[in-house]
Design a protein that fits this description.
mainly alpha, 64% helix, two-stranded antiparallel ribbon, 2 domains
């Protein structure tokens, strides 16, 4: 029955090959189980509840992708989305996480409707490729910058704002080990390099007194602290319109970009198009609604699924294996607590030496898109540069996109290339300018 449903013969695969692919994909993306609770807890969300929400939402989304679209592409809360949620919406803007979840739910609703009625192409076409690639690079720089702060390698210093931390501190040394070890595994193309790096650092931290062993297996933590705690009414505010748009924007381009990339790698594309794409896109939108209700951020297709495709994954059967492993992870909450917990080195200063290296490595991988920016065209390269550099310098994805949109429209206007700019981009550039005038 499985062979017929997932069309294993037609795609030249088998049960064993799909199982290996599913396990491989899980190994490469399982770090999100540790990172997501650590990040969202900074906004005041319950660590254990977020871990459960992450596993349940990832499992459901991965199952749906496999069953509806029959692709070996797993989903989980997106890196970049979680940092925008915490650092920009909750910490910088002072929005309660319940309201931020409400905004995320509204964004996912719009995203689902756009995918259902085919309006996604208009939005995708509106943003120039240079800005799209710069956004990916900027998010990578921001994630890496946060990783360096979490590791203690970069610290706050009066006068220069940032500087080098105390490298002889045991927690910082553990972070340095994690970066070197994970880098080595990544270069050697070890499957699950980031996960193995996290687990090895956690084990090494036990005798150093940096990580605490709480056990391995237990019943899953309670979901009640975050379940259905989103505040939709509070999210219906004028100053959150741009936030909702950026959540929508990030979701669309993350998903479309990942689907195209993996589609090309797995030879799923037919005449330049991805068959059953509407089911894949629908899955992305509707499962984010479910995930937000549980208490986690936007779910998106994971580029790490490419590891599973490289291992032979060709159908949604691989996703069934990946989804089951996410459910199994629910019973390892003590391990998640040990890995994702912070280590206090001074009053008010907490480091995350086990998960910080993962952020730095993930950030470095996201910088690959920098070569796709048109650096020889200044009307493209300057807005792209402002986009990618403003994000880490202001700790805000929103500000990076705003500077990029505004400068792009301005430079095209003054050089007589206004027709190269989509009207949607002009609209949002104007909204960003009004936001700075009225709220800054």
């Amino acid at each position: 029955m499985l062979e017929k449903f997932f069309q294993l013969k037609q795609t030249n695969t088998n049960f064993r090959q799909e199982t290996i692919a599913g396990v491989t994909t899980f190994m490469t993306m399982a770090y999100i189980i540790f990172v997501q609770p650590a990040v969202l807890s900074l906004a005041g969300m319950d660590f254990g509840s977020v871990m459960v929400a992450t596993c349940l939402a990832s499992a459901l989304a991965t199952f749906m992708m496999g069953l509806l679209a029959n692709y070996p592409i797993a989903l989980a809360p997106g890196m970049g989305h979680n940092f925008f949620f915490v650092y920009t919406i909750c910490l910088a803007m002072g929005i309660p996480w319940q309201t931020a979840l409400g905004a995320n739910f509204i964004s996912a609703t719009i995203c689902t409707l756009l995918f259902m009625f085919g309006f996604k192409d208009e939005i995708i076409a509106a943003v120039p490729d240079s800005i799209k690639n710069a956004i990916a690079v900027g998010i990578g720089l921001l994630i890496a910058f946060i990783g360096f702060q979490w590791s203690g390698i970069v610290v706050s210093i009066p006068g220069t704002l940032v500087g080098l931390g105390k490298l002889h501190n045991p927690a910082v040394m553990l972070s340095l080990f994690g970066i070197i070890f994970t880098s080595l595994l990544t270069v050697l193309k070890v499957k699950g390099a980031i996960l193995w790096g996290i687990l090895t650092s956690a084990l090494l931290g036990i005798p150093l007194g940096i990580t605490k062993f709480y056990g391995l297996i237990s019943l899953p933590p309670s979901l009640s602290p975050t379940f259905l705690k989103l505040n939709l009414f509070a999210a219906l505010r004028f100053d959150l319109i741009l936030v909702i748009f950026i959540l929508l924007f990030l979701d669309i381009f993350d998903t479309v970009g990942t689907l195209i990339g993996i589609g090309e790698q797995g030879n799923f594309m037919v005449n330049g198009k991805l068959p059953r794409a509407k089911y894949a896109l629908f899955t992305d939108g509707v499962t984010t609604l479910f995930g937000t209700a549980l208490g986690t951020t936007t779910l998106t297709s994971y580029i790490e699924s490419a590891a599973g495709v490289a291992s032979g994954g060709r159908t949604g059967l691989a996703n069934m294996v990946t989804g089951l492993l996410f459910l199994l992870a629910l019973f390892f909450s003590p391990l998640v607590k040990m890995i994702g917990g912070g280590y206090q080195i001074a009053q008010g200063q907490i480091l995350y030496p086990v998960t910080a290296p993962a952020l730095i490595i993930v950030g470095s991988l996201m910088l690959q898109n920098v070569i796709k920016i048109k650096w020889d065209d200044l009307t493209e390269s300057i807005p792209a540069f402002l986009t990618l550099i403003i994000m880490p310098f202001t700790f805000s994805i929103t500000e990076g996109i705003a500077f990029g949109f505004i400068s792009y429209c301005f430079l095209k206007l003054v050089t007589g290339k206004m027709k190269e700019v989509h009207w949607i981009l002009y609209l949002f550039a104007l909204l960003f300018i009004l936001r700075y005038i009225l709220f800054h």
